[in-house]
Amino acid sequence: MTDSVPHRLDLSSKEPDWWRQAVVYQVYPRSFADADGDGLGDLKGVTRRLTHLAALGVDALWLSPFYPSELADGGYDVADHRDVDPRLGTLDDFAAMAAEAHRLGLKVIVDLVPNHTSHQHVWFQEALAAGPGSPARDRYVFRDGLGAHAELPPTDWQSVFGGSAWQRVPDGQWYLHLFAPQQPDLNWANAEIRADFRTTLRFWADRGVDGFRVDVAHALAKDLDVPLRDLGALALGGEAALADFPPGTHPFYDRDEVHEIYRDWRKILDAYHPPRMAVAEAWVPGARRALYARPDELGQAFNFEYLQTGWDADALRQVITESLATARAAGASATWVLSNHDVIRHASRLMLPPGTDDNAWLLSGGHAPAIDEAAGLRRARAATLLMLALPGSSYVYQGEELGLPEVADLPFEVLQDPIWEQTGRVRKGRDGCRVPLPWTTTGPSYGFGAGGAWLPQPESFARYAVAAQDGADGSTLEFYRTALRLRRKLQEGEALTWADGSPPGVLEFARHGGWRCVANLTGTAVPLPPGEVLLSSAPLDDRLLGPDTTVWLG
Prior knowledge:
17 helices
């Protein structure tokens, strides 16, 4: 592993809590921009396109993993947490990217993957060579199997990606992998693991990183007391099975002990000036999620209930109200997200009828049911303007500012997501939201790079390209730019007031200073409340708020 630099960059700021109301743009580096033409996005490509983010008006970029990886899980199988994958660049390239981001006024957040490593990590290779009972194996979760010849897994625990969460090695022992077999879980009861991640935090903070997104933050602490507990009928439930356990007692998800880790991290993050921020990816119920967002822990946590809520006014009002209360109770600000690298893009997802099996839709190539792209874009723009009006931080995913839909019809033979093979080719996976971005209307990869792209782009991407929308009145790109510029002027305070007497299917609330957001989630036009129109997600007709339309009023 690369050693830490001996000094810290001075990133003093007049706004140490900048993240509480920020708009953060997620960059999936392998699909953002390819500078060297090998078909894979890289850090130099990110650097060259940072002016796009600055012009968009976001406050920060969050980089998904760019570390050395064999890409068994899109970069979340990390072989070295303190280096850059040679295919994506070097540490010098990262330094240049961070410096340019800061010159443009953008903060930099990086993904931290502490639950597991790649099986190519030097530690795991040492564990395989050292054998059972060795200190090297204690860095991971190795156990003897069951059965007369130890031929059965130690427990019935299941991988998130399908199948058993245990993999046997040649000497007969089994190791735990809550995700792909190429991602062995670390043993966070081992002091060496905790010390090494302290070093990793300092390593990147010393290089100008302003914050960390913590992957699978709820899974680090595990109950590994002998005998290990089977889950029985709950084994296939994943995070959903948390409701069947007393809070904090599931064998490997959301255990109370995990918070000791983050309290320790917070001491490190607060030692910098300004303090480094962190946000938890924790797929746990709201009341438990608030624990990760406490000021003495990570400070913020992703709100997946909002992302998972359909296009329904009553359901969204309830989730928004509860999310704000949960964040307030934790002393944190709320977070909002509509798309990311793990879910169907919201321009498509919000058009799926309630009860639709997402995987079945993907397996159909997006044809069962078929989605009207224009209607999906209209609804996506309305959803975005609603989200950006809410108090707290908004996280946007690369390409949503272009209105990109899900690429649901990727041929099976090009799929890269390990979910496809791990489930016996039953679940199609997440590749459809990871297709490389279109920057120009022509070229072998629509300006993504000089050559092709690691996932094929549909011809329709030409009309969504940055070049096609830049400066075009009414384009989704210009809509996002206007919305973010207005948000920066209007956003103040961390509360909202719901309006009384709104028509069914309409959400209306007021923010600090009296400006209002009104969203019509129905299929028919409704009268537009009085007030100056600041921005609308779709054209307005004679003081009527059309279907699937959101407006900001002054």
